[in-house]
Amino acid sequence: MSPTYSPRDDDDDDMSVTSGSIDRFAPSVGTSATSVDWSMRSPSPAPSVFSVTSSMRAAAYRHEYGRGLNNYSDVYRLPADDEELQRLDKQHLMFMDVMGKYPPPLAEVLADDTPGETKAVVDLGCGSGSWILDVARDFPHCSTVAVDLVPMQVLSEVDDINLGLQHFYGDFNVVHVRLISSGIRDYVGLVDQMAQTLRARGLIDIMEFDFRVYDGDKRVCLDDNADSWFARWMNHCHTAVRRSGGVPDAANHLQRWISEHAAFEDVVYREFWLPTCPWLKGNDPETVRQNRIAQVFSEDILSFLKSGRPLLLGSGLPETLVDELQEKASHELLERSIPTYIRVENVYARKRSHHHP
Fold this sequence. Notes:
The radius of gyration is 20 Å and the shape is globular. The longest helix has 23 residues, at about 285-305. Helix content is about 35%, strand content about 20%. Strands 3, 4, 5, 6, 7, 8, 9 and 10 form an 8-stranded mixed beta sheet that branches. With about 350 residues, it is an alpha/beta fold. It contains 11 helices and 10 strands.
């Protein structure tokens, strides 16, 4: 699944990036559903747009602490390598199980019911591209755009969204964001920018978590001497994200930010409490379901403990401490010794029919 490239001698080649694994998604290729629709850009794109040349493909990654990181943003410090893409693919399937494939209004928003208009969707910080590929398959009449800091396994735009979305204003019916708060400098500003990318009655869909662990009674574990080693590890991540310029607690403010923004109406807030391992007691169908999801989530977290090493080591934590935190947090999850939750928060809303910024 890792992006593979065919470098060319001509550095002026500004075609969309094609990955070696795109044939995995062959049904979508014929419709160009996963490519950037360049015609949707404004005549004078903002400076944030990168033309993807072969030299940029080669320069897209840097290696730190044994992992491949993006080479464009100093804020986002999690990997973008093959191992991380595999984790995100599996995580995507888990989130579909937890909260459904799409927010309820999405099918209505993307209905092919407006003569002369091509409905359009953008996934900001698309990760492995799993979500936007699902949209491309399920709504083949729509145009889909994937944006990320590195060339992904889909045809995508390489872009640091911290630099602005002006070239996308008024272009989309749906804007989607999932788990990007660690790489965003000004999340309130981003919400405003996303509002301006939407067409009238468009849908914004944001999901984040707050880089915190909660105990079995759903109380946040803030103490550095907490019983849970996983909670201690996550608290260090929270601090590291903030120091690198991200907004680790954005999830806790999404509902207010969206509700208070003049562009939005029909705001819906959802929260999901995910057990970090299958520790729930009982044999009723819902408990069995929760534990099944928790088993998948536990595997995701164990991979995330490795993904977080560049973030923690880059923040200045001694390697011996990072090793201890990772080892003991992993043992805790595998032994199911301490009941804990991760809290995921989701907000979706519609843009008002008549809104002028």
